[in-house]
Amino acid sequence: MSKRFNKLPKDTLDLDPEVIDKLIPVIKKNCTTKFDESIDLSFQINNKQKKNELSLRTIVNLPGGTGKKIKVAVVCEDSKVQASKDAGADIVGGDEFIEKIKLGEINFDKLICTPAMMIKLSKLGKVLGPKGLMPNPKLGTVNENVEKAIKDAKSGQVEIRNDKDGNIGLAIGKKSFSDENLIKNYNAVIDTLEKEKSNNTVKGNLIKSAFITSSMGVSYKLKLNKGI
Q1: What pLDDT does residue 1 have?
Q2: How far apart are CA 174 and CA 115, in angstroms?
Q3: What would the CATH number be for the domain defined by 15-66+157-221?
Q4: Could you tell me the sign of the dihedral formed by the alpha carbons of 11, 226, 44, 154, in that order?
């Protein structure tokens, strides 16, 4: 381990859980690298239900933004190309663009598609699926209103998705963010998880455990301010 890491607090996971307001200043203090570290959340969900295994996949709009530049691509009809470009899309195209994706030319972070073009794009499931880039109506990425979809993707939209072991990981911003914006983003995530719990009629608590850390820091247990 590096000298920098060795100077960080030890045995932080042995501490009692604490609320987000108290932990953010501590996490920031531990951001001792030269770059702007991300502030990351990690949840363990109760995905083993009696009838089936719970799988969450939804989106949350972070009001304080993400601090990341998202490269957005759009597959659409010719009539929507200019509107997509005007809305800030980085790459826009139709059939020719689909062919490039088919050949493995994937140089974007998020892909948006109009319903009319989705029939053609859906054939690329093996290319886009493993990368988590296949547009999905539930996530707002299959959308007739491409302008809104692009704006949402650029302004601070983050996907919440658990792996097969029930883990969810996502960033709520950067060290440079104000405490207020980090807390706003955190609360947006908690509100979204609360809605997902209601929608999935979860037996018991949805969240087993929650942690917060920075990208190069140490983890602390989070005390949730709601019974999720």
Answers
A1: 65
A2: 35
A3: 3.30.190.20
A4: negative
Side-chain-side CA neighbours of 102 within 13 Å: the count stands at: 12
Alpha-carbon torsion (129, 134, 137, 139), positive or negative: positive
Task: Choose the CATH number for 72-155 among 3.20.20.380, 3.90.180.10, 3.40.50.2000, 3.40.50.790.
Answer: 3.40.50.790
Q: What is the DSSP letter of 54?
A: -
- Residues 10-55 have pLDDT tens digits of 999 999 999 999 999 999 999 999 999 999 999 999 887 766 778 8
Q: Which two tokens stand for residue 203?
A: 């037996």
In terms of DSSP bridges, do strands 220-221 and 207-214 run parallel, antiparallel, or are they unpaired?
A: antiparallel
Q: For 151-187, how does the pLDDT look when each residue is reduced to its tens digit (9 = 90+)?
A: 999 988 999 999 989 999 999 999 999 999 999 999 9
**Domain residue limits, the chain:** 15-66+157-221, 72-155
Q: Tell me if 72 sits within 8 A of 57, measured CB to CB.
A: no
The backbone torsions φ and ψ at residue 186, rounded to the nearest 5 degrees and listed phi first, read -60, -45
Burial (CB count <10 Å: 0-12, 13-18, 19+), residue 82: exposed
pLDDT band at 117 (very low <50, low <70, confident <90, very high): very high
Residue 94, both tokens: 């139709």
